[in-house]
């Protein structure tokens, strides 16, 4: 009997589309996570369409200061943080004219000097998958806060440049040599060829850990920012040195108590 052998598809070949789709999904979520962190802590004020594209209507946002339980409140928080990231002090004359209703081009928006500026630097992105299939992206980043930037003379010397983040899903896929659930190399979230910022009277750095939970549709359902108490205390001038001394004195005190306890137990 003549028989025709039909080609068979190996299990490894059949699983390739699933693995590719998984990599694309992870890459898209990572790109969204980095962009969201820049929207929250960067100088740009996001539009409603951007927030609507990233968050579910009933999404929640949490940090140690505020809790939001709807997308509209999250949009307001993002807008406020965007304004704080570029806080300008208006000219006194423009402020008085605005208070008394005197019309003038620019009005209160006429800036006298910049009081504060903030920028965000992403250092690491990792991902995980929960038992229900939802994905969680964890972003480690640093919030740079400059008080009265630009009042000091700009330092001379070569400009510093940062490594750009992959801006598209294709670029992100090229940077995924390992399977999901593995930590990927660190990178910086500022744009390509970013110039060093102007020196400021006071520069503060706050490490932040952001956890974003995504549903099957690729939208954020839960956004939480973690701030360490130690890092918050270090924002106070002189507190870093005081904390360095205090923590070591406490460690030596614990060592002394343990030694005394051992001597008494003999």
Strand content: 25-35%
**Gyration radius, in Å:** 25 Å
How would you spell out the order of helices and strands? HHEEHEHEEHEEHH
* Portion in helices: 25-40%
Low-confidence stretches: 153-194
CATH topology of the largest domain, which one? Nuclear Transport Factor 2, Chain: A
- Spatial strand arrangement across the major sheet: 2-1-7-6-5-4-3
Structural class: alpha+beta
CATH architecture of the largest domain: Roll
**Structural domain tally:** 2
How many H/I helices? 7
Multimerization status: single chain
The rough form would be described as: flat
Structure summary:
The chain is α+β, with helices and mostly antiparallel strands and 266 residues long. The protein has helices at 11-41, 48-54, 71-85, 92-99, 169-174, 229-234, 239-265, and strands spanning 55-62, 67-68, 86-90, 111-129, 135-149, 200-214, 220-227.
Task: Explain the layout of strands and helices.
Blueprint: H1 11-41, H2 48-54, E1 55-62, E2 67-68, H3 71-85, E3 86-90, H4 92-99, E4 111-129, E5 135-149, H5 169-174, E6 200-214, E7 220-227, H6 229-234, H7 239-265
Parallel strand pairs: 1-7
Antiparallel strand pairs: 1-2, 3-4, 4-5, 5-6, 6-7
Quick tags:
266 residues; alpha+beta; Nuclear Transport Factor 2, Chain: A; 2 domains; seven-stranded mixed beta sheet; 38% helix
